[in-house]
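Appendix B. One record, verbatim.
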Amino acid sequence: MNVPETVFSHEWLLFLSVCESKSLKETAERFNISTSSASRSLKRLEDSLGVTLFDRCSKPMVLTESGKRLYRQVLPAMKITQEAMEQVREENYLFSDLRIGFLESMSLLMAPQFLSFFKKKVGRITCLTGSSDRLLECLRTHDLDIIISSDPALRYTDWRRLMIIREPSVAVFPKAFKFEDNHAKNWQSLSLCNLPFINSYEKSGRGKLVNNFLLTYGIQLNGKINVDNLAIK
């Protein structure tokens, strides 16, 4: 269980947690501190109030009458404070930050629309661009929250995916090239046409997709050139 976000001090949070769990050890584990450190923090709270909140002669220690009364009064105040903080966030757009990555070839088309949509729904926005490999690595290391990628990275089974666009592959031929009369323009005829096949770099997101497609359908094309940039193609 995580420590709640609140304006209450560390000592007050410890006090409320011990009241709820009735265990100093459990509270210390929740706050990732030692039991002796938790005990000292509670003593500082008692000293600041000038009131004994726990009967330490009992094992485990229990609340005194003053402690019980304080807990009953403070708990509602804490809930009201948390609700007020949430309302202020909504009114002033103080939401969580968003870190989003775009495939570089799609960034100019998509990024402005995404940023315009999210700018009033989140706090600070970080936008990165790059290849699918770079974006996937950033997502894997939790440096990005969302990525727009050409590689679905199916090996990461715990990631959620949503297809937002589908684009066709294009075969480009020299103007002088002629298929044989009535010969269908299919993958088999392409594999026998002796034209060089310019493939995407095999380690790039696009290259992996193309290679997987060709491998799945048993297509073998003649080509020794691999590039990672469509403009070069």
